[in-house]
Every structure is written in structure tokens, then in C-alpha cells.
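Key result, reporting period 2: structure in, sequence out.
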């Protein structure tokens, strides 16, 4: 049965999926952005110290907070960041660089001398046999410089500046929840009343991508967001990125926060977690909502068309500031992310410039390698798929010369019947097709998505 709903269509168990859009987003935006991100300019030469207590009189030195680093290594310049927690002379925190990824460290502060270190494995799953030591001097309350040494490996220098704190305006509370050995996930709690709603982001994003959307769900339920491992403030272990392990992470959060029968809402590749949860733990859930997320990612039907499209990438000017980057996003991606999400995705330099992409490519590669063929028939709770239907000529970067490639990538329905038959196996499944929609359908068609979530949750209640 097909019912007209303005610019949407409601389809009962007869979906027409557009997995091309889901596959396309990495090429369309996030992968291009990762390549476009560059380290900011090197910092100015540090000034001299003024005594053992710091550079400003006798004020004690406190390194607590985030710092951005310019690296000079034998292979060329690089960028890094470090977030410190300080308890007396003891330093702990997290270090990130585009080459080494993210690691927890420990260190000490003695007078104006700072040193911290960590170990990492050069190969996934291998021994942590490489040590990294950063040692330097505090030259002001907001600046330090020193050396970075890899053993075995090479050595270089760094110049670090304290990052200006940025107040996140989204009305959420942040909690870190341990889900696995040495792995904690960032959980956002926007509050609200009614049934529990849990938001999961797509590939490349953190839960902050919902910072502007989630507060509008509070009239429907109590809203949480979970940043999966490998992204944002969540832990970045060397393994554990297959669909079932990621779903187990979500279940661990549900257990620890004592969330009863939540509706789990996932965008894009979060459909992997949704299906895994639904197949194995339907008795723990109230329902599932796929935000352009229901697809069989074990097949690749549009790769050839995608390879012929040159998607827009930001220029150097577009990367000069977060504001400039957000002005580029409608042209390059068709939507605008919250500023908080951009700051989760990229290193923002002390000068405010957009720097490198924070998540190393091994993370999305591992997630893509860990997808599974969906078994919608095994899901025993109500499930809703909001299917974003794109129009080729409306996609960023469209040109008439590439019309055929764009149509093949974004409007092809060659595999729609097979996918429809797969979802049709779930007797409690419903699909709503939203026309003229971006893959980030909750941003491009917010009112449609809010309405359909409200209808779905009301039927559960």
C-alpha cells in the first residue's frame, strides 16, 4: 500500500533502498575531507622561561586541557594534539597524530620540564613494541616546545600551544562509559521524557553530529547519543570494529545506564549495529529506526559509477576557519554539520584553522571490512527505515557531462527488488521514502524525520 505524505511516501514492507547514497557519502564528503585536511602553520618560536613556577610570576603551571602541536619530523611537518589531566606532578591524557593515531599516555611535570610517553603496535594486533616519548620545556602558560622520539624509529621536534576552549552550545551532559577492556565511549544525554531514544552516527561521525537535531526529539523521548569506538572522544583500540562488536558496545552502554527497551536510531553504517542488535537482542529493545541505513553492504553495485565522479573538495580558503568550512558544506555535501561535530572530526589549530582529519583510515577500513549480510527476518521488534531518495541533478558537484554516472550512482534501482525482498522478510518492518533528500536525511529533511519518528514511537507506546 502506498500513501502520499507531502513530499514523503509511506510504504508498508515494500521498500526501495538507495544503498548507493550510503556508499557514496565516504567519497562525497568524509574521505575527501580527510585528504583535504592539512596541518596548520608552525607556531612562533617560544620565548624564554621566567623561573620554575612558570612564565608569569609565581603562578603554578597547570597543563590541564587541550593542546595543538606542530611536529617537525625527518619525513616532513605534521600535526598532533594532546589532552592533559594534571594531578600535582603526574600527567595523564590522550595523544593524537595523523600518523600514530590516538593513545593514552602518562608522564610527569618537574618545574618547567614536561615528559610523557606511550607505546603502540606498528601492525594491527601486533605487540606494542614501539615507545614514543615527548619531552620538553614549558615556556609560557600557553606554550611549550621539545622533542619527540620513537624507539625504534626516528626523532623530531614539536611546538605546542594551548587550544582555546570552545563551549559546546548543545544542551547535553557528557558521560564516559566503559564497554570493553581499556575502551570507553562518549555518551551524550540531552534529557527529555518518555521512551528512551538512542542515536548512533554514521561512518566518520561522532554523536555530536546530532547536536542540533537531538534536542528536538526531547518532546518524543529521553535522548542519548553514543560515539562508537575510534571516533571523537571515545577510545581508539587496535581492534573490535566488526558489526557485532560495535553492537555489543551499544548494548554495554544500555546495560550500564539501565536503559529499558530503548528505540535505537542509527544513521548510515550504524544500520550494521541496528541489525546486529535486532537479530541477537530483540528482547532488549523497543524498536529500531534506520536513517538511510538499511542496506546490504557486502555487495558493491555502484563502485564503477562512483569512480567516475569528481566530488567537491574544500579549498585552502575553505579550511581557514570552522566558519569558512561550514559555508563550504552546502556546496560540497549538501548539508551543514554542527560546529561541535566539525571539531570532533578535525584538529582545529590554535589559529582556528581546520587541520587534519582526526580518525586514521584504518578505523573506517576495519568497520567496512566488518559488515555483515543483513538478516531482517530475524529481527523481532518493530523496525522503521527512512529511505532518503536523492535526485542526481541535485547532488553536490553535478554536471550534465557526468549525468549518466550520477544517475547510476544515486538513482539506480537495479538491486532494489533484492533489497526490498530482504526487508520484506520482517513482518514488523515499515519503510518511509523521503524524496529530494540528502544522505544526512535528519539534517536535510528534519521535519519529515521528526514526524516519522514521532509516529513510530507513538505506535509503540
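The corresponding designed sequence is given below.
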Amino acid at each position: 500500500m502506498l500513501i502520499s505524505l507531502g513530499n514523503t511516501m509511506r510504504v508498508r514492507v515494500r521498500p526501495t533502498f538507495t544503498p548507493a547514497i550510503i556508499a557514496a557519502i565516504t567519497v562525497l564528503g568524509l574521505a575527501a575531507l580527510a585528504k583535504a585536511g592539512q596541518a596548520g602553520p608552525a607556531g612562533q618560536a617560544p620565548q624564554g622561561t621566567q623561573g620554575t613556577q612558570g612564565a608569569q610570576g609565581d603562578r603554578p603551571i597547570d597543563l590541564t586541557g587541550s593542546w595543538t602541536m606542530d611536529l617537525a619530523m625527518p619525513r616532513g611537518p605534521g600535526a598532533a594534539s594532546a589532552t592533559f589531566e594534571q594531578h600535582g606532578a603526574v600527567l595523564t591524557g590522550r595523544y593524537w597524530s595523523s600518523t600514530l593515531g590516538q593513545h593514552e599516555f602518562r608522564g610527569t611535570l618537574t618545574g618547567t620540564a614536561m615528559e610523557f610517553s606511550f607505546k603502540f603496535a606498528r601492525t594491527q594486533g601486533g605487540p606494542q613494541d614501539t615507545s614514543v616519548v615527548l619531552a620538553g620545556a614549558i615556556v609560557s602558560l600557553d606554550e611549550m616546545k621539545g622533542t619527540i622520539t620513537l624507539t625504534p624509529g626516528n626523532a623530531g621536534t614539536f611546538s605546542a600551544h594551548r587550544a582555546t576552549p570552545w563551549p559546546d552550545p548543545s544542551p547535553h551532559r557528557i558521560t564516559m562509559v566503559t564497554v570493553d577492556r581499556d575502551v570507553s565511549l562518549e555518551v551524550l544525554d540531552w534529557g527529555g521524557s518518555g521512551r528512551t531514544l538512542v542515536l548512533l552516527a554514521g561512518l566518520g561521525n561522532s554523536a555530536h553530529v546530532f547536536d542540533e537535531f537531538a534536542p528536538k526529539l526531547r518532546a518524543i523521548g529521553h535522548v542519548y547519543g553514543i560515539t562508537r569506538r575510534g571516533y571523537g572522544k571515545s577510545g581508539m583500540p587496535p581492534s573490535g570494529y566488526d558489526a557485532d562488536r560495535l553492537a555489543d558496545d551499544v548494548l554495554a552502554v544500555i546495560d550500564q545506564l539501565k536503559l529499558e527497551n530503548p528505540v535505537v536510531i542509527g544513521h548510515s553504517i550504524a544500520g550494521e549495529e541496528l541489525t546486529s542488535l535486532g537479530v541477537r537482542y530483540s528482547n532488549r529493545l523497543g524498536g529500531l529506526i534506520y536513517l538511510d541505513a538499511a542496506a546490504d553492504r557486502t555487495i558493491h553495485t555502484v563502485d564503477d559509477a562512483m569512480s567516475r565522479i569528481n566530488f567537491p573538495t574544500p579549498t585552502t580558503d575553505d579550511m581557514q576557519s570552522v566558519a569558512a568550512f561550514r559555508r563550504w558544506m552546502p556546496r560540497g555535501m549538501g548539508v551543514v554539520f554542527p560546529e561541535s561535530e566539525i571539531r570532533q572530526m578535525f584538529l582545529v589549530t590554535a589559529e582556528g584553522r581546520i587541520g587534519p582529519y582526526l580518525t586514521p583510515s584504518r578505523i573506517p577500513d576495519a568497520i567496512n571490512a566488518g559488515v555483515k549480510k543483513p538478516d531482517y527476518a530475524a529481527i523481532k521488534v518493530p523496525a522503521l527505515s527512512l529511505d532518503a531518495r536523492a535526485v542526481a541533478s541535485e547532488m553536490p558537484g553535478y554536471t550534465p557531462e557526468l549525468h549518466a554516472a550520477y544517475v547510476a550512482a544515486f538513482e539506480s534501482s537495479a538491486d532494489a527488488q533484492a533489497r526490498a525482498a530482504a526487508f520484506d522478510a520482517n513482518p514488523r518492518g515499515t519503510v518511509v521514502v523521503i524524496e529530494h533528500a540528502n544522505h544526512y536525511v535528519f539534517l536535510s529533511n528534519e521535519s519529515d524525520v521528526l514526524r516519522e519518528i514521532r509516529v513510530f514511537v507513538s505506535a509503540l507506546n
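Residues 261 and 324 are 42 Å apart (CA to CA). The mean pLDDT is 83. This case is discussed further under Risks and Mitigation.
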